[in-house]
Fold each of these.
Amino acid sequence: SFKMKKQLLIAAVAATMTSVAMADISISGAAQVNYTTTDYDAAGTADTNTISHDFDLKVTGKSGATTVVMDIENTDAGAELADAAINTNSQEMNVKNAYMATSIAGVNVKMGTWYGSDTLLSNGSQTEDQVSLDTTISGVKVQYEDNMSTSSVTLSGSVAGVKLSHEIFDTKTDTSVSGSFGGVNVAYRDVDADSDAADSKTSLEVSTEFQGVTATYANVDAGTSGTSSDTFFGTVAAADMMEADGFGVKTSMAGNTVNLKSYTLKNTSSVDQDYTKLVVTRALASGATLEGTYTDKNSVSTALDLELRVKF
């Protein structure tokens, strides 16, 4: 009958919708909002108060051993507050990562656009139209990467608990060694440019823990070209870091994580700048995290940044 056909049609549509809803798709992300006030020592430089945000939404789809990732970010450059008025800058919506990862005959394949890692020698940046192929041979990972302008081959693995990596480009090599030795964690990296010593650079980070306190020493020598960075020293542009040297201690106190750092940056004009930074982080019952950062840039400025962030 017509009624029965109608019921069968509804059931078929419902079954189709259920299969879509149960597809292997996940959504995750993070969001942070910052309020920063900066007081400048120079009488002729106006103090600033800014609000900025960074929202990230990541959609991951899976089919068997194949994964597709689309990562979208919304940011602003900071909205300055003056006389109770908010002068908002334009919003930016960017695709941070968009790639497919799968496996073909034992070779891992990744293709698309993605960000590199933040390190002492780099502030992770986006590279478009990349391909990465890797496999493991006798315990050694062999990886080939190509972004249509540069290519490299990386050999990496572990020997007696020490991690080793050696990446070979057309004009340089990038070697990393890291491990734990008698309770002391050490990470060393050397980028050796074949023809231009100005582009050669090294980094060293050493840390150890005693009685609930983690002590860290970090050092960067980036040659006259400088290097960007986004780890121990914070987010630093290449022009501001030709050399860097600093110590830090981190511990837990009254439910907070407290991190105190003292370091010096030398910019590409060979000018030293001393910093003292205190970071206090607390997990809130709401699921968010509140972080306060006080930065004293000696003889230049002091700044207080309050950040509220959440991951989901």
Note: The two ends are 50 Å apart (CA to CA).
Amino acid sequence: PTRFGAAGEAATAITVTAAAMHMSTSDLNETPLSIITDGQRVAVTSDAIIAARITKVWSGDRNEAVVRQLAPGTSAKVAPSGILSESVAEDLLSAKAQQPHLTDPRTAGETLLALLDTSIRTAVPDPAQPVAVLLSAGIDSSSVATLAAHAGRRVTCYSAGTPWGNEHEGAAELCRHLGVPHVTVELSLDDLLETAPVAIRWLGHATPEKVDIALIGTALLACGHLPEATVLTGYGSDLVNLGLPGSGAADDPHGELPGLVAGLQDARYSGNL
């Protein structure tokens, strides 16, 4: 399971020695790595902006440089001579997703909630530690807030308003039910525009719908409205579409698998899983 990134362990690694440069990504690909080559040199970075800059400089220097992202579960080595070798482990995650072993919806839901509960308790091991929950009043963030509160964590929920609207009322209703504090934050258009480059930078791409999903959470963090050191969110579920089956799911559950697996891969490659 260490291939999937154990709790508290940095699953992505870059190690440089006199003999070679080694790099690896886990199956969950928490921190994507970009690798740049121009036929004679090799560079690796976890920052998409730095990767673009290296590519531009190297392309103007000699041969055309190429940048690509290492696949999840990759181990690679660069020798002092510049020779790059890499191997990709069997994709266990996609294989598991394509062969689900749970078919009963209730059992699947209970299993998912149990896994989320364990993740929250692991992320916040000290019940006295203040923790923020980004709450949109949707099912994903509401589930996270509920589980954190039921686990006895010191939860404060934050809901964001934008020039296009907000979900403060729904968030407040849940917070009253859970008996936890609720803070509303109003984000201006300038707040969102200034945060867009930050969101794109850590996503590593500029796909509009993915940036849109990431923008509010990133803006809340960038604007300094959250004093807590740990932030929980339901973000990521929108990318995978877990829990949002199509209209034909009841008649053909396995017909939903290709879309879910594609969402899983997409979220994983961008480091958002």
Note: The chain is about 40% helix and 20% strand.
